[in-house]
Amino acid sequence: MEINQGGCLCGAVRFKTRGNLRELIFCHCSQCRKQTGLYYAATNVLDSEMELRGADDVTWYRSSKEAQRGFCRHCGSALFWKADGLDYTSILAGTFDSSVKLKPGYHIFCADKGDYYEIDDDLPHFAGPSA
What we know:
- By secondary structure, the protein is mostly beta strands.
- A 7-stranded mixed β-sheet has the order 6-7-8-9-4-3-10.
């Protein structure tokens, strides 16, 4: 079974995942760009396959009617995205410790992309949430 670990910049929040991680989704929506400064690259894991240490140090921000974003209340590291009613949590790729075997999947909300960069890979691109 694959085990991966990660956390925030200051170390107050740490997590461990068990099992396979989903391919990376690159989200170019305006909310993800504002939160991260560029775009959101995230995988996800079933909630039952993630251990979270420092949960009290995660602040959840309700960013829409359907979802919230989790970040460290100390250092501000963006960590998670969680849709209401789903049994998995999206985890930002950059929060994992080294040697995680994440594979690129596709780009979403490309119509919202910032005008200061190009998407120039061969991955599928979607104007909105997906096909």
